[in-house]
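Hi V.,

You were right to ask for the full record rather than a summary. Here it is.
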Amino acid sequence: METDVTTDKPDLSQQGDGHQQDVELDSHGDVDYKAKYLAEIENAKKQRARAQDAESKLDGIKTNQEKAKQEQLKEQGKFKEIAEGLQQKVDILEPIANKWTEFETSERERLLNLLPEEHRSKAESLDNGNLEFLVNSVTAKEIVEDQNPSPQAPSASPSSQIRGETMKNFTKMSDEERKANWDEIMSGYLKS
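Predicted structure:
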């Protein structure tokens, strides 16, 4: 007695026309979507690389054609057409160059204004990249000094703490902070 065994899962190894599909199955016989996803990413990377190569080749061809056209015009003595073509390029590129110069100047002024006055005269001769590095290092040093005060700094006397910092902080504290720091606040008022 023969029984027909049917499965709920279709046979993914063959399509209706007899061609094999490139499908990976995991240990349970299901489709491995992660592998398909990773394969699709690799395919997209390859396509992008091909497109970039094609674009760079096209740019090279256009450049070579432009050079050949310039040479042909020179041979024919059509310098007026060459000059007109170059003037068109200048007209297009000149506003871009002016904007870039304005940007560099404003960026330089901004960076110089961030430096302390004693460093500005020395820093004026630096290019923008080095100037930015200097500003970042000076400001980083100031931040570190602000976070870690020098050990030579004199500590405040109790009376100055009462009149100065503690009282200032005391007036700005919330009720919960005052309750938590009440002993410290009161110790500032006690005579030593």
